[in-house]
Design brief:
alpha+beta, 3-stranded antiparallel sheet, globular, 5-stranded mixed sheet, Cytochrome p450, binds protoporphyrin IX containing FE, 409 residues
Length: 409
């Protein structure tokens, strides 16, 4: 395969790559599976076996965010802002190694276990039905704003116990953190906006923690406040960070995944028809949609020692980006990987990661996707795109569409 002219191997924020990153991934997988990306000054891995090995490598750490400060020159204001933002990534489980990671995860595992999540089924179904009632009478829906966002957002807010009055403040901080992930070099004022949003959410959550401390409720926030497993109590700052990060992790990826899943189905009408004809396929269909166009494309790690991956030397301190969505299209792992097949049983997609950081919310995300897509198909006879012009968000890590207007019959 020669490199197509439009292929951007390094600028993963290029509009062509954002619209369809898979030709780039394919080229890298075939020609340069351990690729040095000079734009992001990091390695990019694209083969399934390399990524599974990397996710278990003792010298590839999740503590990547400390690198951030040195990646580009910062003004004094931006440096101060960065110091305020980084703790969100540095002290949450996803950016920690064991034993700190295991301590935090242990405190939250129960709240997201398959059994606990299954109890949410009626509430998820009720919410999807309510959101769809409105759309069905209008015979159209802007899927992202009207369903894909409010469902996981409401559920994670209810799990944590965030009252409705706090939702806009918390949503603004979540969005700010999602934007921060892909900043290569900040433009003037960009980081200040992020810290402003985080500060407001911080103040709101500190107030809410005081309220819950005085009057605990049956929610995850109260559970975190009273958690004392092996004396592993969380500090107020840790609780605020965990809340903010859980709210981000608990909705952004699922919102995007519902959108990506529906785009994939609408672009493959034969698979959509197959799912309509056999709703039992919803479980395998959701796994396949996660494989085919996942909402988390890249997982960052950092080398804690000089290591060799697939014959390439990675120096201590270098960042290694694991292209899980590239791995999910690796023909060495999946038969005919560019084909969407909602009955597919082979392989083992890396959409929720692998190993000790395997997504805490996987059971919840699966439940929400199955009910949303299943109900959308059950309650309609035909769904069409209202516009062929699909805009992808400017984010190569968290992949999703900005809007998705659909006509419903
Ligand atoms: C379709 C939706 C989702 C996708 C594609 C997704 C994907 C992922 C991936 C790939 C990881 C591994 C990160 C790594 O190894 O660095 C991860 C971790 C995580 N996810 Fe999800 N996620 C989704 C939904 C959720 C939901 C609903 C929650 C709810 C709270 C959640 C919470 C987390 C947390 C807390 C971690 C960190 C786990 C750890 O470090 O041990 N995710 N997710």
């Amino acid at each position: 395969m020669t490199q197509p002219a439009h292929l951007e191997l390094d600028n993963l924020m290029h509009p062509d790559v954002l619209a369809n990153p898979y030709p780039t991934y394919r080229y890298l997988r075939e020609h340069d599976p351990v690729h040095w990306n000079p734009v992001f000054r990091s390695w990019f891995l694209s083969r399934y076996d390399d990524i599974v090995a990397a996710l278990q490598h003792p010298h590839l750490s999740s503590v990547t965010w400390k690198l951030r400060e040195s990646r580009y020159p910062l003004s004094a204001d931006d440096l101060a802002a960065t110091k305020q933002i980084l703790p969100y990534f540095v002290s949450f489980m996803q950016g920690l190694d064991d034993p700190e990671h295991a301590r935090q995860r242990g405190l939250m595992n129960k709240a997201f276990s398959a059994r606990t999540v299954e109890r949410l089924r009626p509430r998820v179904q009720q919410l999807v039905d309510e959101l769809l009632d409105r759309a069905l009478s209008a015979r159209r829906i802007e899927l992202m704003q009207d369903l894909a966002f409010p469902l996981p957002w409401t559920i994670i807010c209810e799990l944590l116990g965030i009252p409705e009055e706090g939702h806009p403040i918390i949503k603004a901080s979540s969005d700010a953190l999602a934007r921060y992930i892909v900043i290569v070099a900040p433009v003037a004022g960009q980081l200040a906006q992020i810290t402003e949003a985080l500060q407001q959410a911080h103040d709101y959550l500190a107030h809410l923690i005081a309220v819950r401390r005085a009057d605990p409720q049956d929610d995850l926030l109260s559970a975190m406040i009273s958690a004392e497993e092996n004396g592993a109590m969380l500090s107020e700052t840790e609780i605020i960070v965990a809340c903010t990060m859980l709210l981000l992790a608990g909705h952004e990826t699922t919102t995007n995944m519902i959108g990506n899943g529906m785009v994939a189905l609408l672009c493959h009408p034969e698979q959509l028809a197959r799912l309509r004809a056999d709703p039992q396929l919803i479980t395998s269909a959701v796994e396949e949609l996660l494989r085919y166009d996942g909402s988390v494309q890249v997982l960052p790690r950092v080398a804690t020692e000089d290591i060799t991956i697939n014959g390439t030397l990675i120096r201590q301190g270098q960042q290694v980006n694991l292209g899980v969505s590239a791995a999910n299209r690796d023909p060495a792992q999946f038969a005919d990987p560019e084909r969407l097949d909602i009955g597919r049983q082979d392989g083992r997609p890396l959409s929720f990661g692998y190993g000790m950081h395997y997504c805490l919310g996987a059971a919840l995300a699966r439940l929400e996707m199955q009910i949303t897509i299943g109900t959308l198909l059950r309650r309609t006879s035909r769904i069409t795109l209202a516009s062929d012009n699909i805009q992808w968000r400017p984010n190569f890590v968290l992949r999703g569409v900005t809007v998705l207007p659909l006509l419903l019959e």
